[in-house]
Structure formats: C-alpha cells, structure tokens
Design a protein that fits this description.
The chain is α/β, with parallel strands linked by helices. It folds into 3 domains: 149 residues, Resolvase, N-terminal catalytic domain (Rossmann fold); 121 residues, Hect, E3 ligase catalytic domain fold (Alpha-Beta Complex); 77 residues, no CATH class. The chain is built from 13 helices and 15 strands. The chain starts with 22 loop residues before the first strand and ends with a helix. 28% of the residues are buried. The N terminus is likely disordered.
C-alpha cells in the first residue's frame, strides 16, 4: 500500500492501560484472567424493576437511522424512555444523553459512538444505557466486537427489555448474539430489497440505478441509458487487437505504452477489469454480492442490448483466455509460497509496509480482489484514516481502513505486546 500506516496508529490516550498500577485482574467462571482498568469494576446485575444500592456511572446513547424518524420525534422518545429506565435502575448518568440522529447503524465512526468511546477510554462510565442493542449497530460481527471491546474496558450494556447484558456470561452472550443477529438479518433483508428494486430499474433502462460512471467507450444517450462513443470505441477495439498480439512479458504495461490509454485515465491495473466487462459485447452485467449469493440470489443481472456491443463474443472469449494465460504464467503453487499475511505474521505489519511500496489493499468482496485506491478521508474513532474504493468496475465497493473492529484489534494486540 502506498500510504504510510503511521497515520492509522492510535494515540497514546487510545490505548488500554497496561501498567501494573493501572489494571486489576478480573476473572469470570471458566475464563482466563482479563485485564480491565482499575476504576471500572464489573457491574452488579441489573434487571428492570430492581435498583442498586451503589449507583453505577453510565451514559444514555440513542440513535435513529433516518431523517424522517428524527423529524417525527423518535429520537427524543427513545432518549426519554432510556433516561427514565436509567433513573429507575439507580444509574448515575454522566452528562447529557449522547445522540446520533439520522445515522446508519452499520457505520461505527458515528459522532455519538466517538463520544461514547471517549468516555470509555477515560474510565468515566461502567455501563452504556440503550433502548435496545440494535441502537449500537446493525451489523452483527462489528456490533458484537464493539460490545466485547466495551466489556474489556469494564463497561456493560443495559437495556429496558433485558437489563444488564454482560457478554462475559452465557446469558448476556446469548442475548447479545440473538439481538445483533436479528438486527443484521433485518438490515440485510432491507438492503436486498433495495438492491432488487435498483436491479429492476436497471433492467428497465436506468443505467444510473446501478452504476455511477459511464465506462470507457460509451457516453450518455441523453436519457437514463448509455450509447457507444465511436471515437473511444475505436480506441478500445485497437487496444483489444494489440492485447491479443502482445507477448506475455509485461503485457498490461506494454498495452498502456502502445495505446496511450493513460491520457484517458486508464491505468495498467485497470486493464484486466476493462477487458472482462460484458458490456463490451452488449451485455451490461451486475454481479451479485456475497450476501446475495448466500441468500440464494446467485445469478448476475444481465441486460441484453446489442446496440452496446463494441466487439463480438468470439473476440471477447479470446481476450478472456489471454488474461487467464497471463494469470497462469505468473501464478505459483500457493502452498509453496508466502503471501503478505505470512510476512506480516513474521515481521509485523509496520515492517512489511515500511519496507515495500508494493503492499496494497485488495477488495474482499467474493470473487473480486480488485485493487483498493484512496477515495477521500475518513475517521475511525477520531483517528484520521482513508476511505478506499475498489477499482473493479463491476464492484466499486467502498470501505474505510481500518474500520473500528480492526482498529480495536490493533489496539488490543499493541497492549498485549
């Protein structure tokens, strides 16, 4: 990867305390010892209708995902319910409720979550009071990881319906897993419904329902679809002819040199993606995501439009064979080689990235493996990071790196070291 990963490193204040005087050992039955900050003792059990003799220090967190919910007062209703519950439970609330209005539960870089993280790191709370667990997040693995991270800091989740949810105990783990799983399934179903609607719109002639850009060789048709740009199409045909005749020695870089595609913003790494797009034979295609495949929607969405064909199918198949031939020539038996992960395990990520400019991020979407390029700045828990976008035209997924789960794992490993 081109960038220096020092920009991702957590500040000293972000790290879990590791000095002997700063931590105590906490044990749960049948668990190995864990270190938690000394000022965050494991909370007593909390159930609706009971009160504690010693008040806990907590904060209310509330979230709604849409502007409509915000305008309808759902956020304030959520806050009021949760505050009243906290008062009944004898929880001493630290400051005002933390609110995220019109914020998706799949993004853990929300302003409210960053505020919660600050209180957790400073040791000011022992419980996070929420209306329900799905207010924290709607992506199961990341939400569970976040809840476990809070518990490592001595903070448990408390809700009106379930009371204290302590993931260090079987009952708490069960509740947390079920709640986050249901929220994830519901969110995935909603996303699939949206994508199905977009696919239908795409099939009915709306290119922009599924793509944000016009591919090289085409232009807008004056409506919602695209049409061939004859000048660029001629360049594409010459590029294909050159590719089929080029040697296997540096084929992609030689094509860039021969055709001067660089001036059109096409790089060496983008050529295989460009060559594999079925739109060039008049079959614009939407590949399915891993989630869609898991749920049985395996077949890609294909629109048959002969007017978009720039090359014939026989030529297209020859190009695919040439790409496969190049891949086979430069591939080796993976069981006999070490990949980037092996070197990271051996030498550490900073050593690997610092020693080589060729280490890069790749898209983890099923069957993609496209190169991820920087696509704007983001933050993860207040730390400056980058957003990345997949260069594969049939994917174009975006993500930030590291996300909250990855960052906390780095912090935990750094603390363990």
């Amino acid at each position: 990867m081109q960038s220096n990963l020092n920009s991702f490193a957590p500040a000293e204040s972000d790290k879990i305390p590791t000095r002997p005087e700063d931590v105590v050992t906490s044990r749960n039955s049948n668990r190995s010892s864990r270190q938690v900050p000394v000022n965050k003792q494991s909370p007593d059990k909390t159930k609706e209708g009971s009160t504690k003799s010693q008040p806990e220090a907590g904060v209310v967190y509330a979230r709604v995902s849409s502007s409509r919910q915000l305008e309808n007062g759902n956020l304030e209703d959520q806050v009021n319910r949760t505050v009243q519950f906290a008062m009944r439970q004898n929880i001493e609330l630290i400051g005002s409720p933390i609110k995220d209005g019109a914020q998706t539960g799949t993004d853990f870089n929300r302003p409210g979550i960053r505020d919660v993280n600050k209180l957790v790191r400073e040791g000011k709370i022992t419980c996070l009071v929420v209306d329900d667990i799905d207010r924290i997040g709607r992506e199961a693995l990341e939400t569970l990881n976040y809840i476990y991270m809070l518990r490592e800091y001595g903070v448990t989740i408390t809700t009106p319906q379930n009371g204290e949810v302590d993931v260090w105990e079987t009952s708490g783990r069960t509740i947390a897993c079920m709640k986050t799983l249901f929220a994830d399934v519901e969110n995935s179903a909603r996303v699939r419904r949206i994508k199905q609607g977009l696919d239908e719109s795409f099939i009915n002639g709306n290119w922009w329902a599924r793509f944000k850009k016009v591919p090289f060789g085409y232009k807008k048709d004056g409506g919602a679809w695209i049409e061939i740009d004859e000048e660029q199409a001629a360049i594409y045909r010459r590029t294909v002819d050159s590719f089929l005749n080029v040697s296997l020695n540096r084929p992609y870089s030689r094509i860039i040199e021969i055709t001067n595609l660089g001036k059109h913003g096409i790089s060496e790494s983008q050529l295989p993606v460009l060559f594999r797009r079925p739109v060039y034979i008049g079959k614009p295609t939407i590949n399915k995501t891993a989630d869609e495949v898991v749920h049985g929607d395996k077949e890609p969405t294909v629109v048959i439009d002969p007017d978009l064909a720039i090359i014939d199918e026989a030529t297209f198949e020859k190009v695919q064979e040439k790409i496969d031939e190049i891949h086979d020539k430069f591939s080796t038996n993976e069981s006999e080689t070490n990949d980037v992960g092996d070197f990271i395990d051996r030498f550490g990520i900073h050593s690997v990235v610092g020693a080589s400019e060729h280490v890069e991020l790749r898209c983890a979407e099923d069957g993609c493996n496209g190169k991820l390029i920087k696509y704007g700045r983001r933050e993860t828990d207040g730390i400056g990071t980058h957003n990345y976008k997949c260069q594969n035209e049939s994917c174009r997924k975006q993500r930030k790196w590291p996300n909250l789960k990855e960052l906390f794992e780095m912090q935990r490993h750094n603390s363990d070291d």
